[in-house]
Amino acid sequence: MPLPPPGPDAHVLVTGASSGIGAETARALATRGYPTLLVARREDALTELADELRDRSGLPSEVHAADLGDDDARAGVRDLLRRDDRIVGLVNAAGFGATGRVVDQDPAELDGLVRVNVLALHDLTVAAVQAFVPRARATGRSAAILNVSSITAFQPLPGVASYAASKAFVQSFSEAVHTELAGTAVTLTTLSPGLTRTGFADAAGTEAFDRAPGFTVGEAADVAEAGVAAMAAGHRSVVPGLVNQLSALSGRLTPRTVLLPVVHQAMDWFGGRG
Ligand SMILES: NC(=O)c1ccc[n+]([C@@H]2O[C@H](COP(=O)([O-])OP(=O)(O)OC[C@H]3O[C@@H](n4cnc5c(N)ncnc54)[C@H](OP(=O)(O)O)[C@@H]3O)[C@@H](O)[C@H]2O)c1
User: Which of 3, 148, 179, 252 would give a disulfide with 144, using CB separation of 3.0 to 4.6 Å?
Assistant: First the structure.
């Protein structure tokens, strides 16, 4: 069962809504008629987007500033998902990358990456599944989750090892839960974008976006549109764009002994080591 029809009581909570894919996903949802709850650390950016969404759609948009790497702040968002029965959708878009060899990296930064990309996504997904399934059973209204992964999920990537592994977790966990949810009125969709023009490159300290051929870099609005369409239909997963689909396929099928030296060199060239 997909995302239920839009309406004043069909709210969708979007993490990572202050920028990039999360912000565009909130715009795509508001355009379809869903009120939104926007989550990220930068309250000013969230407030600006909430004002824009209210002006554009005439629908409510609420702001919940929270650092999802912080246990207490994350518990606040988790409780919101459990308590607020207006919420029929969750989009986990918050996340960031870190480039460089593990030997050179700041352990605190990698810890933060795992907390946001893995722990927070897992925590909020579990809370949403455990809130949505009984609610859907009781009310007959369906609910949907969209987890943002990446094409880096499909193979190990020296140079962005922790980031790629965090997305491998997202992909594996989300596809498994999608299957567990069969027969319920709740769906979980995984969105796996390739390079996308957002604030990601600056946050990750990578030059990959400058060096990559233009046709391989997508726009956040297109990625968000693909994600919301797949979420609305209750699909298991979506990889937007042919180049990204080929990359995901080769990452899955190529033997690691062949793949790892090649991607190691490619990541060096792309500036994966920062
Ligand atoms: N851009 C790409 O090429 C690409 C490709 C594949 C997958 N992705 C994935 O797409 C998702 C969105 O990234 P993006 O490309 O849109 O990058 P972005 O523009 O940098 O957005 C990242 C979002 O995550 C939020 N965030 C980061 N740390 C957070 C924390 N501790 N607590 C709460 N929110 C936090 C940021 O908000 P605040 O800074 O306000 O907290 C921001 O809203 C990420 O999961 C990323 O891994 C991106």
Answer: 3
Q: How confident is the model at residue 269 (pLDDT cuts 50, 70, 90)?
A: confident
Strands 61-65 and 186-191: unpaired
Q: How far apart are CA 40 and CA 242, in angstroms?
A: 31
Q: What is the DSSP letter of 127?
A: H
Query: What's residue 259's pLDDT?
Result: 95
Pairwise CA distance, residues 60 & 107, whole Å: 40
Average confidence score pLDDT of the chain: 95
Please give the domain boundaries of the chain with CATH numbers for all domains: 11-270 (3.40.50.720)
Q: Which of 39, 32, 37, 91 is nearest to 57 (CA)?
A: 32
Q: Alpha-carbon distance 113 to 162, whole Å? A: 8
Rounded to the nearest 5 degrees, what angle is found at the Cα of 226, between the Cα atoms of 62 and 255?
Answer: 120
pLDDT tens for 100-121 read 999 999 999 999 999 999 999 9
- Indicate whether 192 pLDDT > 50: yes
CB 148 near ligand 1, within 6 Å: yes
Compute, in angstroms, the gap from residue 221 CA to the centroid of ligand 1: 14
C-alpha 61/C-alpha 47 separation (Å) is 9
At 274 the pLDDT is: 34
CA distance 86 to 95: 25
Q: pLDDT tens, 36-49?
A: 999 999 999 999 99
Mutate to test the pocket of ligand 1, among 13, 19, 78, 166 (most ligand atoms within 8 A of CB): 19
Does residue 58 register a pLDDT over 70? yes
Quick one: CA torsion of 175, 178, 179, 183, rounded to 10 degrees? -170
